[in-house]
Each structure stands twice: as structure tokens, then as C-alpha cells.
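Q: For a teaching handout, I want to show students what a protein-ligand complex looks like in C-alpha cell form. Below are the inputs, and the small molecule is 6-O-phosphoryl inosine monophosphate. Please produce the holo structure.
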Amino acid sequence: MAVDLLLGLQWGDEGKGKIVDVLTKDYDIIARFQGGPNAGHTLIFDGNKHVLHTIPSGIFHKTALNVVGNGVVIDPVIFRKELENLDQHNIDYTSKLLISKKAHLILPTHRLLDAASETSKGKAKIGSTLKGIGPTYMDKTGRNGMRVGDLELDDWKERYNLLTDKHLKMLAFFDVDIQFDLKELENEFIKGIEKLRSLKFIDSEEFLNTAIKENKKILAEGAQGSLLDIDFGTYPFVTSSNTTAAGACTGLGIAPNKIGDVFGIFKAYTTRVGSGPFPTELFDNDGKNMAKIGNEFGATTGRPRRCGWLDLIALKYAVQINGVTQLMMMKGDVLSGFETLKVCTAYKHKGKIIKHLPYNIEPENVTPIFTEFKGWESDLTKMSSCDELPQNLLDYILFIEKETEVPIKIISVGPDRKQTIIR
Ligand code: GDP
Ligand code: IMO
Ligand code: MG
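A: Here is the structure, written as C-alpha cells, with 6-O-phosphoryl inosine monophosphate included.
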């Protein structure tokens, strides 16, 4: 059986966690393929809200197995807290949460290096979540990193000490004042490692390819979004992994010809948290209303998310790079009550009108050109079928489908698992 992919098409926080949770009933295995605790995936059902950072969003279902793939970076300290949250809800994860031996570990000093790097950048900072993501992936590609499988070696602590010493020397190179108590950080780290050890470490690529042969249904869960991809995002204001479809192949060990559907998730408008260009960003009341109604605060850092109109040029770019076969539109309910909606359908770039994403999308390089749509008044949050949706919303949907040439199969009308319309 082929592996389906689910990924974000914008700057993250599209609602991936919610939809993975909705789809899990149709899958045997949910596998996270990249990113780490920079992600915050929100699930709401039965009156409870859960935020997952590293653990796949299928964990609340009884039968599905959940795999943290080799492409993921794990902070044992945050991971332990996530597991303790699951304990509180009596979720038995020991038999259904499997960790790739090849996943890299975020050390306390990776977090310190992240903070030092950001501080030293001053105004040019990336707006990182400061979870140590960049430094950990740097150690991975620099061939210095520590992996989960290393914890099974007798000399893992020596390896840890060597890498930590190196990091401390690197920290000294940054001309910034970062306060820390290494002993305390290490105590927390060791506690996290102990908890991590209670789970099964596996050769995940072997496990997943065997599952494919056995006709098991696998859903690969992405983190972040395509515009934060290390290669194709708004570099350098990106994360440090491939968030796009190709990342699922390298992050799980699955061959491209084993990929089935690619589900692309997008918000009916656009948000971004952290620094970096955002052509359709709003600084007026429309933007403020989106933020307020959409409750746009980061699930990991609590920072306010910047809001703006839907950017179809960027969306089409993401659809193309990922080979999206089905779209899912989130948070349409947030747009109820807007008299006019705008969608960016071209950019003015160096005096010309263009319809693709150019190398630079800073305000001095591109000006968005908008197509306007009539809004709708009705509250969508209690609607459960397409027949109930207002015509102006259907026109908005049809336009996006026509432009992207991909069908929108799910319309999400609220944060709860139940507020999901399948088309
Ligand atoms: P993820 O990182 O892609 O999993 O998304 P986040 O969880 O970071 O952010 C999505 C936010 O929107 C969360 O607070 C969700 O509860 C919420 N959400 C998801 N879908 C909808 C929707 O259709 N309508 C509304 N109003 N909120 C939604
Ligand atoms: P999910 O999976 C939104 C952003 C950060 C920052 C940049 C680099 O919840 O959609 P990093 O911590 O990776 O060094 O930060 O990327 N960022 C996200 N924005 N959603 C996320 O994940 C993000 N993960 C990282 O705000 O701008
Ligand atoms: Mg998020």
C-alpha cells in the first residue's frame, strides 16, 4: 500500500494536527518525518485541547501505531513533558509509540547555541522558536550529531560530554551574554533520556517498508510548512529541514514511488510567526480581526501570528513543489463577517506583472495584486455539509480549485475534530 503525505502549504500552523487526528481512523501507522519541538500541533475533541510537539497526531486513537521518523530531531526534555501530558489523559503509548534509532537528539547546548545565534543576529534574527532546531540539524549534516540509537551504546555519556564541550567552546565565540546553569539543564536532559528509554527504539525505515509490503496504510505527518522549507522557503527565514514532500522520503526512508496521495493543508487566509517576508500581510483592522477571531497565537511559543490575505501565487508554488493531489482548507469560519475578501493572484515585480514566486519577495521587490471576492455573514462553525455553506464561500473555493488545479476535499469550519466537512 502506498504512503499518503500530509503537509502544510504556507508558513506552518495550517491545522495539520487537527486533520491528522481526523484522518487517523483510516490508517494503521502515522509517521512524523521532520522537524522537532519547534512544531505545535493542536487537537481538540471531547472538550479537551492537546498540543503535540514531537509525537505524531495519531496518538489519541486506540489502534494506530505512531512512529517518530529518522528525519525528526527530539529534545528528550520536551518529549518527556509531552509523554507526561499523555499520562494525564490515560493514553497508553508504550506499545504504540515507536522511535527511530536514527532520529537526532537535541542537547541542552543546542538550545543555548540557538539562543546565542539569534541574539547575535540582532534585528536580522530569524524569529526561531529557540528549541535548538538549527544547531541540531547543523550537527547532523556536519556529521557530529548524537542519535537515539547511540543511547544503546556503553559510551553514550562520553559522546555526549565531547559534543557538549565542543558546544561550550562554540558558545564562547558568540559575543553575547547567555545565562545558564549547565548542571540543571543536564539533570533535566538525563530525566528525559530515562523516559525516552521506556519506549521502543526501532529501525524505522525497515519497519515502515515491511508495513508497506504488508499492505498497511501509512500517513506521513509533516511539520512546519512549505514556505519554511530549508531549500524552497523564504531563506534565511526558514527552518532547518525539508518540510516538503521530498522530506518525507528522506525523513522516513520511503522511496518516491511508494508515495500515494499528497494532502496539502492551507488556511483560507495566511499567517506567519517569526521574521521574514510576507507579501499579503495586513496591518489594518482586517488583519487584527483575523488574528482575534482566529485566535492566532503560536501553539509552541505563544507569540502572536502575523495575518494576511490568501496568497495564491505562494499556494500554487507549494502545490507544485509537493505534487499535492488533494487540498484541505482550514479556518474558513474565521472569514465570516468580512464584507470583502482579497486573494493575491499576481505580483508586481520590477515593473512587470508576474504569476510565480520570484527569488525575493520582500516588500521592496514585490507588490501583491489582489482579486476581490464578496464575503459571507453566516456562522460556519455549526455546519456539517457542503449544502449548508454560503454561495460566496463556495465561489471562493471554486476559484482556488481552478487556480491550483487541485480539488479541495476537506473544509474545516472550527478547531474541533467534529467541525470538519468532507467534500
Ligand atoms: P498545525 O501546527 O498545522 O498543527 O496547526 P496549529 O495547531 O499550530 O494551529 C492551528 C490552530 O487553528 C489551532 O489553534 C487549531 O485548534 C485551530 N484550528 C484548526 N482548524 C481550525 C478551523 O477550521 N477553524 C478554526 N477557527 N480554528 C481551527
Ligand atoms: P508547525 O509544525 C509555524 C518558524 C519560526 C521561525 C522559523 C525558524 O506547528 O506548523 P526554528 O525554531 O525552526 O528555528 O524557527 O520557523 N516555525 C514555525 N512557524 N509553525 C511551526 O511548526 C514552526 N516551526 C518553526 O517561528 O520563524
Ligand atoms: Mg503549529
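A: Two things your students might notice: The chain has a mean pLDDT of 97. DSSP finds eleven helices and 20 strands in the chain.
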